[in-house]
Design goal:
Largest sheet: 6 strands, mixed
CATH class of the largest domain: Alpha Beta
Number of helices: 13
Helix content: 25-40%
Distance between the termini: 43 Å
Strand content: 15-25%
CATH architecture of the largest domain: 3-Layer(aba) Sandwich
CATH topology of the largest domain: D-Maltodextrin-Binding Protein, domain 2
CATH superfamily of the largest domain: Periplasmic binding protein-like II
Structural class: alpha/beta
Length: 321
């Protein structure tokens, strides 16, 4: 994994929410705390969770977070649906696909947004091949993505299609983000769907950003990820979910308004140097869930042939309307 930082997260057990030994229900320290098993991806996007813990927002709501790490949203979705994870963080494309399969999921809060700024958006396609100068040039190439049939390869395909290229000719190679720069250097792949902090690390090795694909195929500011739970957990723990959302919204707002503190928190849960944390592109954190994004991703998933049935966005987004 040369040239890339390894992500680190404390090993924490998955569990279902429950009151601790001193608890007598929800609502703050006097009544004890309730534990939420929260499935996240150890990336920059979840910095508000750690800031919120540091600032005491979750404690004020009588919540303790039991964090566990997943490879991607597609891996966290089954855990939430099965009840082994109470609340999950994942990309909205995976949620749309999951909803088309009939999984009983509810979006409860915003996660992270793209910036709509090609100069500072952290969701990128990178390459070190001088012959690749535009998205259409990726046709016939090998492109790395962290998961197949998910947001990465679908967005890359949409970018290529919007530039007049044929995404059907792309060979996608599944690799963890930390391995992608080395794969590019070795010639194993020609380009990669890459996010921070690995974009900045790759640039330090001479790899360049080809495009920010979320800006290529739609004018909508894409909300990349949200926090979600199961229909059962939402109905059985309505007050707990509301308190979690309150604390999370405070955390998202704090992160957006205090970017230097967001940068400072990164080395506490990611194995990256503080100097790198000062250089990486930050996403945007907002509290509003973007219905437009879910409509865009529903159309894209249909184009990619990934839907198993109709997507009931009314049911999926019921909690945030």
């Amino acid at each position: 994994m040369a040239g890339a930082a390894m992500l680190a997260l404390p090993a924490l057990l998955l569990g279902c929410s429950s009151d601790d030994a001193s608890g007598e229900g929800s609502g703050g320290e006097a009544q004890g705390t309730e534990t939420i098993a929260l499935g996240i991806i150890p990336i920059i996007d979840v910095a508000p969770i750690y800031l919120g813990q540091e600032q005491g927002f979750f404690e004020e709501q009588g919540i303790e977070l039991d964090l566990s790490a997943g490879q991607g949203g597609a891996a966290i979705v089954p855990g939430v649906a099965s009840g082994s994870i109470d609340i999950g963080f994942g990309n909205n494309f995976s949620l749309v696909v999951a909803a088309s399969s009939g999984l009983p999921l509810k979006v409860i809060a915003s996660g992270v947004d793209s910036t709509q700024d090609a100069e500072r958006d952290q969701f990128t396609i990178v390459t070190d091949d001088p012959a690749i100068t535009r998205p259409a040039d990726l046709a016939g190439k090998r492109v790395a993505t962290n998961t197949i049939n998910s947001i990465g390869d679908s967005v890359v395909g949409a970018s290529v299609r919007s530039d007049g290229g044929d995404p059907e000719t792309i060979t996608f190679v599944e690799l963890p983000f930390p391995n992608m720069a080395a794969a590019l250097a070795a010639g194993d792949v020609d380009a990669a769907w890459l996010v921070e902090p690995f974009v900045t690390l790759a640039e330090q090795q001479g790899i360049r950003v080809l495009t920010t694909p979320l800006n290529d195929f739609t004018d909508v500011q894409i909300e990349v990820s949200t926090y979600f739970t199961s229909t059962q957990f939402a109905s059985e723990n309505a007050d707990l979910v509301e308190r979690f959302t309150t604390a999370l919204d405070q955390s998202l707002t704090y992160a957006q308004e205090n970017p230097e503190e967001a940068r400072a928190i990164l080395p506490t849960y990611l194995d990256i140097d503080p100097a790198l944390a000062e250089q990486v592109r930050l996403p945007e954190w907002n509290t509003e869930v973007s219905e437009e994004t879910f409509e865009v991703f529903t159309d894209l998933a249909e184009t990619e042939g990934l839907l198993d049935g109709e997507v009931d966005l009314d049911a999926l987004l019921e909690q945030v309307r």
